[in-house]
Each structure stands twice: as C-alpha cells, then as structure tokens.
Amino acid sequence: MKNILSVILLMLIAGCSVKPAVVPSLEGSAGKGDNEIYIVSHGWHTGFVLPADDVQRRLPELEKRFGNTAYIEFGWGDEGFYQAEEVTSRLMLKAILWPSESVMHVVAVPVAADEYFSGHEMAKLCLTDGELRSLVDFIEGSFYKDERGEIRRLGDGIYGDSQFYKGVGEYHLMNTCNKWTAKGLRSAGVDIFPAFKLTAGSIMKSIAKIECNTRSVP
Questions:
Q1: How far is it, in rounded angstroms, from Cα 93 to Cα 91?
Q2: Residue 23 class from Cβ within 10 Å (0-12 exposed, 13-18 middle, 19+ buried)?
Q3: pLDDT exceeding 90 applies to what percent of the chain?
Q4: Coil, strand, or helix at residue 18?
Q5: Does residue 47 fall inside a structural domain?
Q6: pTM of the model
Q7: Cα–Cα dist 205/214, whole Å
Q8: Measured torsion, CA atoms of residues 8, 30, 57, 42, in degrees rounded to the nearest 10
Q9: How far apart (Å, rounded) are the C-alpha atoms in residues 177 and 174?
C-alpha cells in the first residue's frame, strides 16, 4: 500500500511539471489589482475569460479571427474528447487513461461575461498588471506555435463564435482541463496547488475567498 501511495504522489507531482508549465509570478497572492478576469465553470470543465485586448495584442491571429469583441474565453483539453460531436464512455476513458494531444478552445464573448455565461457558476478576480501579464504568458504558452511563431487553427468550436487551436502538452489523468486552470491561477499569483485540482468544483472553491465580487448562480 505504501508503494502504491508513493507512485500516486509522484504522478501528482509530475502532473505539475508537464506542459503547459506554470509561469512563475513575481507578485503576491492575486485579488488586489484593477484588472478584472473571470473563471467560469461548465460543470465538469473550467476556463478563463479575459478582456480581448489583453490577449489579442500578444496573439494577433485571434484579433484576425474574432475581431472587435469585449472578452475571450480560453479552455484547454483533450483533442478527441473536446472536439467530439458525441461524448461516449469509451472516449472519456481514453481521454483520462491514455495521454493524448491537446487543443485550446477559444470563444468570443461580445457582451459582459456574466451576461454571456448567465446560469453558470463564475468567479471574478482582480489582478495587478504583473499578475495579468503572467496569466497571459501562461495562456499564450498553451498554444502550439509553428516555426514561424504562428498558432495553428483547427476546427470550429462547440458553442457561440468559437474556434479550436492546436495546444501544447498532453492531456491525461494527471494533466486535465481543470489542472490547466489551476496552473493559470498559480501563474497569476493565486495560492493554489495545481496537483490536487482535478474537478471544476475544487477550482471554484479554491478561489472563493479571493473573489473581488461574488455572483450567485440563479
């Protein structure tokens, strides 16, 4: 039993070091800045919603694709599971148990984030300029770039005006979509340990105390 626990612990630790990697934050715990960003829960999956200008300056391909939009949502996940038209138990098990390629899911949010994601659990964080910069660094580093430094566009997204892009890193049990969100939060200076953030609920609970504005789910 002790050997099994040791193996599990090593896997959890290793899950923190794989790509996309946390961007070291030079500032303290997030929650005291003027830059508002959102974390949205889709029940099983979480993502970031950022002001479009902050990321389009770094990734001009997104400005060409989505144009003048207020916010952009970012999610990371398994290439097959995320893009599947029909989710099956076989596909779900394959995504969890077998390392697979990853994708970024990018969604244009043309109105206020809480209006667009009405009915979803959301949290708003207020980041300093440095914390926001580190988070954008992390998100940018989650996109695969070719030899010309350009991100690779894939198929259409799954809701709204959205698009898939080739991601960085492999998806598996110890490197999930919610762990990706936890790594992004860590990059933004949030005191969170990504290794144990396997569910959307664990993410939302971890940031409840540092929200700069709380909104209840109707």
A1: 6
A2: buried
A3: 61
A4: coil
A5: yes
A6: 0.84
A7: 12
A8: 60
A9: 10
What domain range is 38 assigned to? 2-210
Any domain includes 95 = yes
**Better-predicted residue by pLDDT, 127 or 215:** 127
Alpha helices in the chain (DSSP H): 2-17, 52-56, 60-66, 79-83, 89-97, 113-116, 129-141, 177-187, 200-207
What is the pLDDT at residue 6? 36
User: Across residues 171-187, what is the average pLDDT?
Assistant: 91
What tokens does 12 get? 């959890």
C-alpha–C-alpha distance, residues 62 and 54, integer Å: 11
Average pLDDT over residues 39-54: 95
Residue 143, beta-bridge partner list: 167
Q: How many CA atoms lie within 13 A of 87 on its CB side?
A: 9
14 in a structural domain: yes
Among residues 19, 24, 55, 22, which one has the least CA distance to residue 37?
A: 55
Sign of CA dihedral 47, 137, 112, 218: positive
Q: What span, in angstroms and rounded, lies between the C-alpha atoms of 10 and 25? A: 24
Domain count, the chain: 1
Residue with tokens 């960085």: 168
Dig out the tokens for 175 from the structure: 């490197």
What is the rounded average pLDDT for all residues in the chain?
Answer: 84
Report helix, strand or coil for 3: helix
